[in-house]
Write a structure and sequence with these properties.
184 residues, DNA repair, five-stranded mixed beta sheet, 5 strands, Uracil-DNA_glycosylase-like, Uracil-DNA Glycosylase, subunit E, uracil DNA N-glycosylase activity, DNA damage, globular, alpha/beta
Length: 184
């Protein structure tokens, strides 16, 4: 991909992968330029979202970004706090993130996922004015959905390698959807 192509994708909007009654609606911060150019969430090479979903057991194999619609088969969807594409999340304004929190609340009220998994603690803190929020489950809800904050899977977030992100997704899944007891 050439720089001109990526710059032409700036401010494009990605479509949500969503339907009513999902188990998990993953919510990224906003699309990067590679995602906007391809039309697929978490499409930048080096992003650990798709490998982490597979390692966590959410998907039976590692999906490619172009296969994002298959998430629906596994009870999952994907959206973004801010739909506008940028090269870096720090290009977003506080107002855009706050509006993104309102947008996410409307989506959760309309589609009613069991849990909204916000991918990025700093963006979550700003969008929902929760300055002390940490990775993990949150006390509040968005509409009627539980909220779980996950680490940002961007390659820029070096403190969270894919295995550690996958472990947090497994922790979320186990807490929210416990396995049924084995029958005797």
């Amino acid at each position: 991909m050439k720089r001109e192509q990526l710059e032409a994708a700036r401010d494009r909007v990605l479509l949500d992968v969503i339907r009513p009654g999902l188990d998990i609606l993953f919510c990224g911060i906003n699309p990067g330029l590679v995602s906007a150019l391809t039309g697929h969430h978490f499409a930048r090479p080096g992003n650990r979202f798709w490998p982490a979903l597979h390692q966590a057991g959410i998907t039976p194999r590692q999906l490619a970004p172009a296969e994002q619609d298959e998430l629906l088969e596994y009870g999952c969807g994907v959206t973004n706090l801010v739909p506008r594409a940028t090269a870096r999340a720090d290009e977003l304004t506080r107002e855009e993130l706050r509006a993104g929190g309102e947008r996410l609340t409307r989506l959760a009220a309309e589609y009613r996922p069991k849990v909204v998994a916000v991918v990025g603690v700093t963006a979550y803190r700003t969008a929902f004015d929760r300055r002390k929020a940490m990775i993990g489950p949150q006390e509040e809800r968005v509409a009627d959905s539980l909220i779980w904050v996950l680490p940002n899977p961007s390659g820029l977030n070096a403190s969270w390698p894919v295995g550690r992100i996958a472990a947090e997704i497994r922790r979320m899944r186990a807490a929210l959807f416990p396995a049924p007891p084995l029958s005797a």
